[in-house]
Amino acid sequence: MELRQHTSYRSKESVIKLSAQDFLGNFTKKQVSWMYACSKCGECVDECPVYQQTSDNYTAPGFKIKKMRPIITKSLISFTSMPSEREIKNLAKGLYECTLCGRCVSVCPYQYDLVDLWEKARESAVKIGLEPAPIREMMDTTFTDKNFLKRPHEHRTRWARRLDVPEKEGAETLYFVGCVLSYTPSLRPAATGVTAILNAAKEDWALLGDEWCCGVPLKFGGDTERLRDFVTHNVDLIEASGARRVVFSCPGCYRMFKQEYPKILGRPLKFSTVHIAELASEYIKTGKLSLKEKLDERIAYHDPCELSRLLGVIDEPRSALAETSTALLELPENKINTHCCGGGGLYKGVDTENSLEIATRRIRQAETIGSETLVSACPSCIMNLYQSARRAKSSITVLDFADAIARQIKEV
Amino acid sequence: MTLSKIKEVKEFEYPPKVTLTGVLKGLWQTSKLDLLFHSLMAILLITGLAIDLLGGFLGGALAPIRQILHGYLGAVFTIIYPFYLIKILVTRKTRMLMTGINYLDFLLYTVLIVTGVAVASANQIWVDTLPWLTDALSGLRQYAPAIHTVTTYVWLLVSTLLPGGFLHGIATAYLISIKGERD
């Protein structure tokens, strides 16, 4: 089959030879089985935040499976028919109109790992050039600049100037800052918050000298061939430093290190990984971190999908935040049932408007429960919620978890 | 924006593992009718194949398998099937996910049910209680066993190749058998 792509969808008009073996040919037996085993119950359809927002069938998880299934069948049984070119293009677009939040996996009655399926399908889309232009650009930028924000690599640690950030070798703990916090001035309080927490707890820590992007834009975008360089660079550097632990602000980086890096390297990492929410909670419990009197502020905590649903970090941020406020509120969709902020899975890169609209739903939920401050432990969530709150003219303050804790640190 | 009822998941661990208990629990949660439909479907297929292929070797077990497992459970299946079909057809999200082969599956199930009822309608209990049914199906009765058997094999072939209900079952069984391990 020959696919001629639209210029609106890809920067260069190109003709792609697409055959059943090419598209989705990278699926394992298990992934193929998920597609055939799908019971078509539609639980994933109702719960998908993007489908809720767009009502476009191609964003509904079950519908994507319906369109992917004949492609796989065609590769197994040649006389069966393929979806039309238009359907395949819509499918490829739909694969990226997804926040990879994992809600479809958690509500799937049979527990099929659809996040894995979407990531694998995106990989295949990249191989035949069906990825949207903004995604391609983001992946290329990541590869050349070592960050996906098109910022010079040598500016990565600029945020730390004039801050009390230890410059030393052989530290026990390394702080992996991530691209978003390193390069986004408005999110600087999140990184300085981590700095303040680590210093207050008298942690033996340092920054990773030549930190590269964790590779999540390549993983989510589907360019896994170029991902290995990032994995080996970061791991080699950390292991050579002798650090025993790496702390993260970004759940995306954290999940890459915890779940993907060992798979890619084929071995366990020689250091442990921890999110700042887990570490701060531990510091408070063990008395390494003393906080001021609780504030009379109505705080709600938004669970980042990757941190809560996909990594299981649920109680720690709550227990830490409970020490900062007399009123820690729960949003309607919380913990493993959290509702995505719309900023995950590179979705914002392909549909900014709907991504922000999804975040607005969260802002409205926070307003409904009477929250004054909405805290989250993920830079992408913070960005999306903050922008959405401003657009929606909401009075809600959006705050990063580390910043919220750091503000309450008792000075000694 | 479409606002739907929030489904609350009680426990979840990522990456998830497909297990037999998980699948049965999933069917139960989705709908009790689904669990009943799928369980009966599996029993009827296995017993039907056993009767057809192993009938000569089953000896004394043949009669109870035919009468109780295939016959009575077939009657239960006949009763619940219309409800299952209606549920599928009236639910927008399931209609959205159904394919042509799924509807062909339903057509073949209907043929199996009608021919099954035609065979059973000759039993004295139905002759006594529902004589009109016996009369209505009398023309079909002599061909019914053959149509029933042939339809089963046609369904197995079609729904494996195209793919439909049977491949759905095989894929589920495969996923359970690998116990969530990576392949």
Describe this structure in words.
The complex is a heterodimer of chains A (412) and B (183). Chain A is of the alpha/beta class and 412 residues long. Chain A is 48% helix and 10% strand. In chain A, the strands form three sheets. A four-stranded parallel β-sheet of chain A has the order 4-3-5-6, with helices on both faces. In chain A, strands 8-7-9-10 form a four-stranded parallel β-sheet, sandwiched between helices. In chain A, β5 (245-248), α13 (251-265) and β6 form a beta-alpha-beta unit. The model of chain A is unreliable at 1-15 (pLDDT under 50). Chain B is mostly helical. Chain B has one domain. Chain B is built from nine helices and no strands. The longest helix of chain B has 29 residues, at 62-90. The mean pLDDT of chain B is 91. The chains are: A alpha/beta (412), B mainly alpha (183). The interface between A and B is large, with 55 and 46 residues.
| Structural class based on helices, strands and sheet pairing of chain A | alpha/beta
Mean pLDDT over all positions of chain B = 91
Whole-number tally of structural domains of chain A: 3
Q: Distance N terminus to C terminus of chain A?
A: 70 Å
Tags for this model:
heterodimer; A: 412 residues; alpha/beta; Rossmann fold; 4-stranded parallel β-sheet; 20 helices; 10% strand; disordered N terminus; B: 183 residues; mainly alpha
